Amino acid sequence: MAAATNPGITTLNRYFELSNTAGQNQRDLDELLGLFARDAELESARGEIANGEEGLKDFFRTFFRPQRGVAPCVEHRDDRPGPCSR
């Protein structure tokens, strides 16, 4: 018997996968935004609030904007070396 898939966990996993690439790939950014309801509200760790589709687009465009002197760092869940394991 196949194990049941929890749609919430599947969506959360996809969110994190897309978060690794959405800053460099518009299609992944669009898919990431599609994971949210049209009237979603997001609060950042700094307390900034983004509302609705346009608010979320603006938030993630700013979030993924390259920062001078800051390199992306993605750790893998398995034993593959990532850029953070130097």
TrEMBL record:
InterPro entries named in the record: NTF2-like_dom_sf (IPR032710)
The organism's place on the tree of life at top rank: Bacteria
Entries under SUPFAM superfamilies matching the protein: NTF2-like
Protein name per its UniProtKB record: Uncharacterized protein
Lineage per the UniProt record: Bacteria, Bacillati, Actinomycetota, Actinomycetes, Propionibacteriales
